[in-house]
Amino acid sequence: MKRSAPRFAVPLVVLVSVAALTAHAMEALPRSPRVPANNPSTPAKLALGQQLFFDPRISLTGTVSCNSCHNVMAAGEDGRPVSLGVAGRKGGRSAPTVWNAAYLSVQFWDGRARSLEAQARGPMTNPVEMGMADHASVIRRIDAIPGYRRSFREAFGGGNPVTIDHVAMAIAAYERTLVTPNSPFDRYLAGDKTALSASAERGMRLAESVGCTACHNGPVFAGPSLPDGDGYYMMFPIKTTAAYEARYHLSEDPGRYTLTRVAADRNTWRVQQWRNVALTAPYFHNGSVPTLDEAVRVMARTQLGRDLSPAQVADLVAFLGSLTGEFPRQSMPRLPEMPGRSAID
Amino acid sequence: MKRSAPRFAVPLVVLVSVAALTAHAMEALPRSPRVPANNPSTPAKLALGQQLFFDPRISLTGTVSCNSCHNVMAAGEDGRPVSLGVAGRKGGRSAPTVWNAAYLSVQFWDGRARSLEAQARGPMTNPVEMGMADHASVIRRIDAIPGYRRSFREAFGGGNPVTIDHVAMAIAAYERTLVTPNSPFDRYLAGDKTALSASAERGMRLAESVGCTACHNGPVFAGPSLPDGDGYYMMFPIKTTAAYEARYHLSEDPGRYTLTRVAADRNTWRVQQWRNVALTAPYFHNGSVPTLDEAVRVMARTQLGRDLSPAQVADLVAFLGSLTGEFPRQSMPRLPEMPGRSAID
Question: Does the CB of A146 have a partner CB in chain B at under 8 Å?
Fold first, then answer.
C-alpha cells in the first residue's frame, strides 16, 4: 500500500467534520455517565470492581494491576511515555487516564473497544501488559480465592458467577464512578465567572477561535456524544514537520490503520479528552512530548497549521489547566484473602 | 573462612536462648506500637507518609512504590517468592509484611535497619527495588511537586523540609499505624474462649510444647521486646536435610553473615513474625516454600528435629490462622499533582 494516499484523503474528511461541528458549544461535565442497561451499577458490583481494579494477582507475575498504569490515586495514568507491564515489558502506546473514560465514545487510542466492558478484557491477556496466558487462567486465579467467590455471588448471583464477562462488567461499573466534577471551567459554566483567570478565559475563547474545539468538544472535549459504539476519530498528525518527526516520531504509529487495514485510517486516532489533561503528561499516543505547552504548540502546528505566540500558548495552557476537576476521595479496597498459599502460581 | 565452624557454634547460642526464654507466655497484640520520641506521629505526618508509601514516582521508572511489594490492601506483602523491582529486576529475599512490622526488634530479614525510619531509606536506592541513583535524586523528584512541598512544610515546618530524613520519618510514622488487632487469638486471650476452634486451641498448646514459642514469642511472635535497636536473631535452618536443600535451598543465603561477616552469624536471621502468617505465603527468606502446612513441617524438622503428624500440622496451621487480625479500613491517598509535565524524568 502506498503511504501517500491517506495523507491527502484524510484531511478532507477532517475538514468536513470541522464544518459540521463548529456549532458545538463547550459542555459541562455531566454528573454521571450513562450506565448501559445490561450492566447496572450495584454497591456489591462496584465494590468487587474496585477490588479487581486494584488486584495485581490477575497479572502473570502478580505485580501489575489495572491501577499500576491507570493510577486512580493520581490522574488516572502513570506519568510515563509508555507503561511498563509484567517483567518490565514496554507498552506500545501511552496509558490514557481512566478518570472520565466513561464519557469517551470508544476505548483505547485506536478505539478498538466499543465499551468499558470490552476494554477491561484486553490488558489481562496482553503479553506486554498483565501477561496472563488466557482468560481461563485469570478465572482460575480469581476462582481459587474464597472471598472473590463470595463477592461474585453477591454481585452477580448464579451458581458459577466467576466469569470473564463478570470480571469486565464489575471493573467497568467501578470505572463509571471515576468522574471528576467541579473543575474551575465547570464552575465558570455554572455561573461563577471568577472561577477562570483572565488568561484561562482568553485561552477558552482561543480554543474556539483557532479551531481546537472543532474536534475537542463535548462533555470531556473528546468529541460529541455518538450512538453507542461509534468512535469519534481524527487524523494526527495531519501535517507534521521534519523537526517534529525527528524529535517526537508522531507519524510512526499508523494508529487505527493497525486495526482496520483501511488506508484512510492511517494515523487516525480516537480524539483524546482534555479533562485533567494538565496532569497527564507526557503527551500523545507515544508519550513523546513531555510538557503541556509543547503539546499545545505541536497540535496547533500539525492540526491547524498555526504557529501560536508564547502568550497564546500560555493562555491555552491556563484554560486546559482549568479543566482539572475534583478527584473524589475513595476508600481503599481490601483484596480478598487466600489463606495458606499464594494465589500467584 | 571455613563454612563448618558456625554449624557447631550457632546451635549452642540458640540452646542458651531457648533456656532463657521458655518462660515467656503468649502475648496479645498491643493496641499500638511504641512511637520514638524523635518522630512523634501527627495527622499531617501520617497523611504525608501514606502518600509517599503509595507513590511510585520515587522509583526510577515511576512504577514501583513501597506498596508494590508491601501491599497494604492485602496482607502487607506481594505473595511472590521474591519481589520484582524496577524493570522487572528480582529481589534477593522475600518481601516481609509491613503490617505489624512496627513491633519487630529490627527491620529486614538480616536486621540491618534498627528502626522503621532506617528501613524506609533502603529500598529507594536499591538497584533491584526502586532503583533511584541516590537519595538526592529522590529528593529532587519530590521537591519538584508543589503539593509535596506544602505537605512537608505542614508535617515538619522549617524552610527546606523536603529531606530524606523527613521522607523516612513520614513513611515510618505511617507504617506504625499498620496494626491488625482483634485476631481470634487476641479475642481468646481477652477471655472469649469460643474464638479459637478446638484444632486451633490444640495447635496453640502444641506450639508451646514442641518448642516453637521458644523463639516465636512476644507481641508478634517474633521474639521478646528488646532494648531499642537490639535484634532477636536465630539460625535457620539449624539442621536441614538433603531433600529440603534440593527443593528449597534454605541454607544457600548466609543471612546475617552477609552483613556482619562474623562466622557465627552464618544462616542467622531476625525471627519472623507469625501475625497474619496464613496470608503471607510463600514462606521463608527465599519464598521457596509455597504452603503454610509445608512451612510448619520444615520448621519442626529443621529447628526442632521433629517430624509432626498430619494432625499436629493441621492443628498448628489452625492456630497460625487464628493470628490473622482485622485490617483497618483506610482511605485512599491522593498523590500530589505536577501540572504541565510528569515528575518522572
Answer: no
